[in-house]
Amino acid sequence: MLKCTIDREKMEGLNNLIKGKNNLSPLNRFVSKDLTKEGISSLDEIGIIDSDGNLLETMKSTMEILSKPHAVVKVIFTGGVGAYEHNINYDNSFQNHVSFTVTPNNVSIDDESDPLGIIKIMEDFVGKSNLKSVNISRKFNVAEAFVVASMLDMERKSILRAFVDEVPFTHNSYNTSMIWRIMNSTSSSIQWFVCIMNEIIGEYGTLSQKQVQDAINQLIAEGAITQNGGQYQLSSELSLLASRMIIVDNILSVQTSKQDEIGEIISAGFTCVQSGVHDLLFLDYDGKEIVFETITSVRLMDYLDQFLNCKSYFAKMHS
Questions:
Q1: What is the extent of the structural domain holding 13?
Q2: What b-and-e string marks burial along 223-246, b requiring 16 or more CB atoms within 10 Å of the CB?
Q3: For residues 116 and 272, which has the higher predicted lDDT (pLDDT)?
Q4: Which helix (H) or strand (E) holds 267?
Q5: What is the C-alpha to C-alpha distance for residues 146 and 72, in angstroms, rounded to an integer?
Q6: 143 and 85 both lie in a single domain
Q7: pTM score, whole prediction
Q8: What rounded mean pLDDT belongs to the chain?
Q9: What's the chain's Rg over C-alpha atoms?
Q10: Contact, 79 vs 122, CB < 8 A?
Q11: Which of 252, 251, 254, 264 is nearest to 310 (CA)?
């Protein structure tokens, strides 16, 4: 049994002793280097290796799950407290697991605690309520999602400027060029929905102004935005979403991955953006379309519970 916290340098030394990692292993993100004398002494005291720097027999099964997990649930929480990554690694029986938590300075390894304990930790950060302030449920293709994200970001900036300047906020209009420019110039920050879209979708080519205009036309037909001459406005519900989510407080991302019978990796997951206990936007990308749905914090914890109930959830996953 193991429950410990070590710094990154010692983790890199320990990683050097663990061989044969598969593609799911969270250890792949760490470099490997020789343990120092101080590192050997520290890991010996914890009970992971012996005084000669060899893995203890009692630790080999734990390290086997870490290096060659059959399935992994990864929970990434980003907010004012910094970045927190929690990996729960399972063997093929789903009876044994090892939690591997990464913070900016340390890692924690735990093969004792109940994986569902993370739900209580997330509740402390996210809050718990059955209420939500905006009711939105829409599905967009990738180009449409980037247009909506750009317009949400511009609307949020306008609301902030009105607040700082102490002037009444008016529902703003944006042209195609402005939307395209924001889409391609937004900085990498969790505060901007364009950046969040880039993280969710991954590699995606730059949209041309024509593609942006085509997406705008589709969004007008769907009622997500309105047109006034050559200017475009968010619908009233999306404008209200912008006003409720001026500042992003937290982002929770959950990803489940497993290997199928031929060794291919199958993944599923979601991202949730939070501005307050009643203001959470659930984003789910299936490779073609993105769901935008406001949810309650209680429902978010229900989703997390479903993903952590891994044996039944992973059984439903197919390539």
A1: 3-123+254-272+297-316
A2: ebbeeeeeebbbbeebbbbbbbbe
A3: 272
A4: strand 265-276
A5: 30
A6: no
A7: 0.90
A8: 91
A9: 23
A10: no
A11: 254
